[in-house]
Amino acid sequence: MDSTDPADQTPEPTPHRRVSVPISFTGDIGGFLFDLLSDIDAIVWEADADTLAIEFVNDRVHDLLGYDPMDMVAEPGFWSTQIVHPDDRDAFLASEDEVLARGVARVTYRALSATGAVVWLSSVARLTTDHSGRRRVRGVETDVTAMKRAEEEARESEERFRLLSEASRDSVIVRAGGVIVEVNQAFCDQFGWTPEEAVGLRPEDYIAPESIALAAERLAQDLSGEFEIEGIHRSGTRRWYSVQVREARFHGQMARVVVLTDITAMRRREQRALHDASHDELTGLPNRAAFARRLGEELERRRPDHVLGMLYCDLNGFKGVNDSLGHAAGDALLQLAAQRLVSVVRTSDPVFRVGGDEFVILLPLLPAAAAARVVDLMKQRIVKVFAPSFSVARTAARVGVAVGTAMSPPTMTAEDLVERADQAMYVHKRYLKQLAA
Fold this sequence. Notes:
Layout: H1 30-39, E1 43-48, E2 54-57, H2 60-65, H3 69-74, H4 78-83, H5 89-102, E3 104-112, E4 118-129, E5 135-143, H6 145-153, H7 158-166, E6 171-176, E7 179-183, H8 185-191, H9 195-198, H10 209-220, E8 225-232, E9 238-250, E10 253-262, H11 264-278, H12 288-300, E11 306-316, H13 318-325, H14 327-344, E12 351-353, E13 358-367, H15 371-385, E14 390-392, E15 395-397, E16 400-408, H16 414-436
Helix pairs in contact: 1-11, 13-14
């Protein structure tokens, strides 16, 4: 019999298992976040705006700080109480107030890793609203420890700066007298200049014209700061960069160290996520949420001598096609119907898909004296464009359209305008049924 005490036996070490928090709480951006995690070398998180409780954080928090993502979610306030350095906590909490008040906040602070090591993080947080109407705060924490060390430990050492910047995947430039005096290899790779050619370049040589005014203003400021610009390669191609500016000594004189982090992939995914959240996937038209926003905007900008016209359209016979020919044919029919509607309106008249086979067209800023005639003419054009049959599933499908119209006097609310157009649509639908009987 083995006389070894089990308590003396050393158990086999088990490999650390990383836990990813599932992104099921915000389905409208789930795909965006999953794509983002594969491209960004930073901590990405999302929190409830009302409680600031973190509900998602990616695995980069483990790589950078040694914490399990589940620690962030399981304990409210974990980040501000356990990770943020006590000396920076007031500034961090102030940034939380700022993002709720202004919609965006940036702060650079010290974070404490699980081992007690200090990591400098540059944070960008934005306030947004998801597809279900919940207010969210989404942010990115970028490791800027190397740059802070360059500030604190190597102000007088050009060689140390060069070693740090060359090791960085971000573009690093040193500016003095309004021109570049030093760059790292990443800048050369990302902007297309050799180190020798880069010396003497001015902002207009590597920053897109639309971003020049902002860049010039921020680069001229004495204070450090962060902002976003569109950079331009010498070939003309453009990419988006997050810019961090710090003061440093170069050849014994004060200069500005500029770090440009490529955020193009993140910007594109943000834009795609915003587009997807406000557009119908099947037809590509703006959806009900976009309709509600645009309607409110148009009512806000009404003028006393103008009105807003609305046409509420419902397809007649769509259900029969969908049931007899199948859902694929029904989807194809909706796409063709959307195309016909878009074909008869002006470029200034937005078309929305607000339901299964329901569409709304807005006619902004119609002169009051001619509004009724313009709205009626548009109704006639819509009815006429639906007269020819649709070719779906190798079948000629005849589908009509009932159109309800309404116009907004200066005091009409959005709800009243939609209700009036909807009721008018049902009146027209009954008329068409009686006509066909």
